[in-house]
Amino acid sequence: MTNKRSIIIFWALFLVPTLIIAGIAVKLLSHEQDRVNQSAIHALSERAKTISETIHLTVEAVQENLTQSLLEIDPKNLQKILAAWEKTNPLVRNVFIYRKGRDLEYPVRGMESTLEERRFIVRYDSLFTGRMKFDFNADSSKNEAKIKTAKESSSGSGRYDSAPQKQTKSSRQKLVALSRVVQKAPASDQQAFFSDETKYQLTKKAGWIPWFNENRLSILGWVQKHENGPVYGIELELMTLLSRLVVDFPGISEKGAALVMLDGNGDFMHQSGRWVADPKEKPIEVVLISNLLPHWQIAVFIKDKGFGSNRGFLMISILLLGIFITAIISGGILLTRLTLQNMKDARQKTSFVSSVSHELKTPLTSIRMYAELLFSKRIKDSAKIQTYLSVIVNESERLTRLINNVLDFGKLEQGKKAYRLTTFEMDQLLDQIIQAHSLRIESQGIEIITQVDKGDYHIKTDRDAMEQVILNLLDNALKYAGKGKFIKFILEKEEAFIFLKICDDGPGIPKAQRQAVFEKFYRVDNSLTSQQPGSGLGLSIARQILTDLEGDLIFDPMPGNGSCFTIRIKQHESH
Ligand code: ADP
At what angle are helices 538-548 and 382-414 packed, to 10 degrees? Predict the structure, then answer.
């Protein structure tokens, strides 16, 4: 009882802190995982912001350059140059020239315009009919500030970009360069252009109008150089702008995360990342790209909370924690098992001592009793004398076997038992044993049945050890067969093995204990066993001896009732 309580206390002291530590560790780890994830999400949204800023700057530069280029157009060739832009510059979707109070000058309303032009006119109808002013959204000071003088801009290299040209340009630079349209006007025209400027009062109004039509964004850029001059400009080709902008969209290495560019309707226009985001999912973070592209956004999508390679961190940590706890608990289980085993051994040894003493006492008492009777010479009947003497012999033999078992047990435990191998015939040994013990067996009213298959039973093994094994099994059959009627010895050969079966028709061994009976000190807990002397060593010694001699001892229930113990031993090569 106290032992049980000590084990419970041991486990409580052992498990409670382990589990508390494990719980805290898992909590800390998942906190850490959350923190790592949060910072990964933060990094992604920072990246989205950087991308937005880059896009904003690019679009701004494109618009500035286009404004500048528009302002630089020679008024005399205005329509020609604009029409040429529309044809050649992929950034320009449509061009227009509008004069206040005089409707559109270009494209011309009516039959001669193309379908695209007609759609364009309809799209911006309120502007081209004068219902809305071009500068309705203008922050004039800002626009003015952005307009450089024609001279300033023409002082550039004359190429697309005033900055020193690099051999390789990023697509962003290429896009900006594309917006810097060079005017290929003849020198005389240039002259006229500058003189033209002096004739009128320069106002240089300009602006960009993000325009929503049927929920689609389009962008119109316009300039008006003089108070009474025409308003002219271009509509940006957003597809070109977009296709060039997304080239520089950075790839992201995090697994299960994506950066997606969305238009005003929330439609995916571009996405980067190895994982493909689902448009139906909600983004974890949204960044507006720029007021130049109203409602366009960059959204951060993640597959789940523990996205990316960081998930491995938690997995490995939990795995290590698992291994650690398993190791601790396994150690605990091992210790408990050892303790229980030691306790069992101690109990068994105590009961072994008492059962051996009891077993020694029984034959000794009969030997002494019969010897005293004979010694007193009171018994005259020679038959009786003969019986008493045979009892003395049998009991002393039993005593010898018991002592041999106990002695052998010690040696076998330490692996010190020495075997003396000799060659002999197994059938002869069996015959000899049966003859020597037939009186003892038959006196209990038990019939001996022998069934020896024809053949050669020549073996090389330790004869005394083999005899000890057979006698242990025979003793058991006599002790535990209860009201059994026979003991059967079956000797047979199969391939290179000799099998000796010793069977009885007693109550047999319950299924659950059929393996346990081979353990040292083990005795079946039933009334039959408790009535018989025994130490629980016979079968374990028999099996150990046979294993040492490269054989085995197997239990099989007898069909119906009873037990059958089979000795299996390797046959010696025939001479
Ligand atoms: P012991 O005979 O000294 O108790 P053994 O190791 O020889 O120890 O046997 C272990 C137990 O196996 C016995 O206590 C008995 O309960 C059971 N047993 C062995 N042989 C038989 C048998 N022939 N029939 C029924 N039970 C048996």
Answer: 60
The one-character DSSP state at 213 is E
Contacts of 319 (CB under 8 A, 6+ apart): none
pLDDT tens track for 279-319: 888 888 899 998 889 999 999 988 875 555 456 677 888 88
CA of 517 to the centre of ligand 1 (A): 7
Identify the sign of the CA torsion 514, 519, 522, 523: positive
Q: Which residue type is seen at 450?
A: T
Phi/psi for 247 (5° steps) reads -60, -35
3-state secondary structure of 251: coil
Q: How many angstroms separate the alpha carbon of residue 253 from the centre of ligand 1?
A: 71
pLDDT per position as a tens digit, 555-564: 999 888 899 9
pLDDT tens digits for range 169-194:
566 777 777 777 766 544 444 444 44
Residue 532 or residue 310, greater confidence: 532
- pLDDT value for 169: 52
In this structure, the strands spanning 447-452 and 486-494 are parallel
CB of 113 closer than 6 angstroms to any ligand 1 atom = no
The answer, yes or no, to whether any atom of ligand 1 lies below 6 A from the CB of 517, is: yes
Q: Which residue has the tokens 């002291």?
A: 13
The answer to which of 28-42, 137-151, 296-310, 519-533 has the lowest mean pLDDT is 137-151
Q: Is the CB of 405 under 6 A from ligand 1?
A: no
Phi then psi dihedrals of residue 213, to 5 deg? -135, 125
Q: From CA 104, how far away is CA 121, in angstroms rounded?
A: 9
Topology, domain 419-570:
Heat Shock Protein 90 (3.30.565)
Atom of ligand 1 nearest to the CA of 562: 24
Cβ of 537 less than 6 Å from ligand 1: yes
Which ligand 1 atom minimizes the distance to the CA of 523? 14
CB of residue 178 inside a 6 A radius of ligand 1:
no
Check residue 190 and give its pLDDT: 43
Calculate how far, in angstroms, residue 506's C-alpha sits from the geometric centre of ligand 1. Answer: 11
**Does 244 have pLDDT greater than 90?**
no
Best substitution site from 402, 476, 565 to test ligand 1's pocket, by max atoms within 8 Å of Cβ? Answer: 476
Strands (E), 165-201: none
353 Cα to the center of ligand 1, angstroms: 17
Cis preceding-peptide flag for 90 (omega within 30 of 0): no
Q: Which residues pair with 260 in a beta bridge?
A: 271, 299
Distance 496 CA to ligand 1 centre (A): 29
Domain limits of the chain?
A: 1-158+171-306, 419-570
CB-CB contact of 200 with 227 (8 Å): yes
